[in-house]
Amino acid sequence: MRVWIDLTNSPHVLVMRPLIEALRADGHQVEVTARDFAQTVALCERFGIDCEVIGRHRGARPAAKAVGLVDRSAALARWARGRRFDIALGHGSNDVTVAAWALRIPRTTMFDYEWATVQHTVNCRLAQAVVVPEYIPPERLHRYGAKGKIRQYPGLKEEYYLADFEPDPGIIDQLGLSPDEPIAVVRTPPSVSLYHRFENDLFAQVLAALRGQAQTVVLPRVAEQRAELERAGDFIVPERAIDAQSLIAYADLVVSAGGTMNREAVALGTPAYTTFEGRPGAVDDALIAEGRLMRLTSAEEVRVVKRKRGPDSGRVRRDPRLLLKLALAPLRERNPYTTV
Fold first, then answer.
1. Using CA atoms, how far apart are residues 329 and 87, in angstroms rounded to an integer?
2. Do residues 259 and 113 make contact, with C-beta atoms less than 8 angstroms apart?
3. For residues 185 and 172, what is the distance between their CA atoms, to the nearest angstrom?
4. Are 185 and 247 in contact (CB under 8 A)?
5. What's 278-302 look like in SS3?
6. CA neighbours within 13 Å on the CB side: how many for 240?
7. Torsion of CA 161, 164, 170, 174, to 10 degrees
8. Which three-class secondary structure state does DSSP give residue 8?
9. Which of 190-204, 257-271, 290-304, 316-330 has the weakest average pLDDT?
10. What's the pLDDT tens digit per position in 102-136?
11. CB of 313 within 8 A of CB of 165?
């Protein structure tokens, strides 16, 4: 079987890595394309994922995103034509869904935040399978054209791709941290996303509140954020993609305005605060209701306490082959006797 996987943002590399490994372990051929955005390409290099870099992020404005979708989808279709792929997979990549649809390649989309309206309207209508967490009520996706295509999995996607993960203590020395002092990890707001168009004032206040409380590592998303943080000083800003999961595992607090890093903290048993100011998704709502994630409404609530770590820290590990089985649903529906 020939499988095409497209990666358009940093978290997609993490989600797809164990699926790529499982497919290759089963003898299938996997080819990967990646968009030059955030740390996507750098993470591919770190995990040893060979990829064809095609296209770049065109900016946050709707018109720019539309141009980017058309241009990159066309470029992907030109690249994929004649390669005889059996299926195309993406996590939040509408580019690969459009390109695969144009080439009549079976296709699956995956995501875990249901309110990215423009993206999901494209992906859900053109994909043949829509793989999402059980936390998301299926009826929320029907308006996107997903009715009859939804395949749900229990838990968090992070519990699947971190199932084989063991933290590397070398990250502490790499960043010049002291293991005896509190460590806070902060992820900048996804300011280039359509669902988060405004400045997050709370985020800036949180950074100020962390001064003096903890060794604070800030992970920017784009170059502009990095430059601003470096001017501010007082924070550790890695120059390149790092082993963020190990850093989170050894941290005493994680604060993120996005979703993936907070959910990684939840999966690894690290206290996490969300400062997300967009429309909350079902996954975060459920984690907050379960007490596994805390919503931060004021910087005064930020308190970093050196935590004690026990065996496995209450982690939940799930088999990524379940995600793979759901993602390959279009092939089984096409041929009920297939063994994939």
1. 10
2. yes
3. 12
4. yes
5. CCCCHHHHHHHHCCCCEECCCHHHC
6. 8
7. -10
8. coil
9. 190-204
10. 999 999 999 999 999 989 999 999 999 999 999 99
11. no
CA-to-CA distance for 161 and 140, rounded, in angstroms? 25
**DSSP structure string for 143-181:** TTT-TTTEEEESS-HHHHHTTT----THHHHHTT--TTS
For residue 313, the tally of other CB atoms under 10 A from its CB is 14
Distance (Å, rounded) from C-alpha 22 to C-alpha 28? 9
Strands across the sheet containing 129-133: 52-56, 29-36, 2-7, 87-91, 107-110, 129-133, 150-153
Q: For residues 81-107, give the mean pLDDT.
A: 97
**Locus of tokens 């591919």:** 44
The values of phi and psi at residue 318, to 5°, are: -130, 155
DSSP 8-state symbol, 133: E
- The sheet with strand 272-274 has its strands ordered as 215-219, 183-187, 253-256, 272-274, 294-295
